[in-house]
Amino acid sequence: MADVYLNGKFVGSVDEPLVLMASLKDRRRAGTLDVNVNFFYDDSADAVYVECMRGRLRRPLIVVKDGVPLLTDEHLRKLSRNELSWSDLVRQGIIEYLDAAEEEGVFVAFFPEDLTREHTHLEVAPITMFGLTTSLVPFTNYNSAQKVNTGSKNQKQALGFYAANYPVRMDMDVNLLHYPQVPVVKSLMHDIVEYEKHPSGQNVVIAVMSYKGYNIEDAIVINRGSIERGLGRGSYYRPMVAEELRYSGGLVDEISIPDKDVKGYRSEVDYRFLEDDGIITPESRIGEGDVVIGKTSPPRFLSGMEQYSLSSETRRESSVAMQHGEEGVVDTVIITENSEGNKLIQVNLRDHRTPEVGDKFTSRHGQKGVVGLIVPHADMPFTASGIVPDILFSPHGIPTRMTMAHLIELVAGKVGALSGRYIDGSVFESEPEAALRSELLTLGFRDNGLETMFNGETGEQFQVRIYVGNMYYLRLKHMVANKIHSRARGPIQLLTRQPTEGRAKEGGLRLGEMEKDTFVAHGASMLLKERFDSDRTTVPVCSSCGLIAIYDEYKKRAYCSVCTDSETSLVEISYAFKLILDEFKSLCIYPQLKLVNRY
Known about the structure:
- This protein is an alpha+beta fold.
- It has five domains: 2-124, no CATH class; 140-169 and 192-231 and 357-475, DNA-directed RNA polymerase, subunit 2, domain 6 (Dna-directed Rna Polymerase Ii 140kd Polypeptide, Chain: B, Domain 6); 235-353, CATH 2.40.50.150; 485-531, Alpha-Beta Complex (DCoH-like); 536-586, RNA polymerase alpha subunit dimerisation domain (DCoH-like).
- The protein starts with a strand and ends in a 13-residue tail after the last helix.
């Protein structure tokens, strides 16, 4: 007797669960039962699970009976003539959607030639088991599963041509590649998603070799000549928005150049790019601290009769200005109104981004790395036929990561570039490696992708052959210009008197437990001391009761609020420690400081 569960809820029992399963499947394929229902018999628990809830991941498979797929050549001809649709095939029970549970009890074949009488289903295409971005990775079945996943994620972060109407859009944190290209080595999915309309990478020449240690670990070395010819160049767009808000009592913000008597007035230099209406001029090159949209607001707090005598002195400055470390060119200025009818100003800033040391690049196989060095074109190694690679990739990235597809794409890209055609790298259905190698041989190159190369600085021939080929490389949005951060001195927080947090606020770099351990291990005791006194303060401490005393600025003396005529000593402590002593006192705990070695 097997229990039956509907969406996890017990609904009854059956004597013959396998007969029930066969009956339910037949009814679903015949169309008398909804196609969204899935069934699974768990023999270990002796239970039948019937699922029809939302949120299940399901995928289509072709039904197989007695080793023969139900999808025939006649069906395919009708599909190509639009006499039959996908929905018709699902309705007729030729194709059915299975969820994760039902997949446990089926036997699926990849290709029709693999079918046996034991098989229950056939893949529509092997590529359907992958998501959109994963199926864009060529020769996926030659990679380790982890790097397939990494390569898929990296593609989502690549710079490209994301939308054709980008000049009139106000998107946050947008990157645009200036010269995007369609990959030479592509998969079936590139054609399906019309990748040529929104490409996000470039075809480059890669040499797998080290270069003076500058491509150590995952770093890459880039040819400066390639950058000057347009490799990886892009633009970074960021919007700045201001609106005239309305407040109670008829008070409103005003977008204009603030008067000098407004509270918080900056300086004339900061407002130099603003026009008479308080909005910046398009194509102005601006930097840190420059005002983009001039704006004044009414005072925050009104009391008594002040609200009836509002003059310009009581208004405060609330302009939108460039933050610390930012620069760019004003690209677009849009003056409109929001849904509430308030005046809305949107300014799009543009910053030209050329690849620099620290910027991140990757192949489609998760082989990501930052630029370690940019070498002049004349100093780059070159092949016997005069080809100078755009990127030098470290050979140490291959053995541990097992990305064989990375190496195969190099050879495939080389074949595609030389023969002037696209190479099919669709997963499980790609052009065979042997065929690519034999074609490369007919094109006058070694079939294993190796070439003789020469030192660009000395002209000497390298004693080893170098693996060279063409590849699709992506520039990622992680750029050093957005992340570089340093600080000598700057603002502090009001409560803790420690440096502020975050790059935009000119914040400090926090030294954590692990960072502290590295300094301890290194023996850098003075550096450690310096790092840990960002909130150093000197306080008077009562020598008799051990509480922090009070310093009277007017009388220039310190006294204890508990003891009458006690002696005080100045002690250097962290302000955060002083705060926790105050917290203890609020809990009626007596934090006594015992002073020793007094001078």
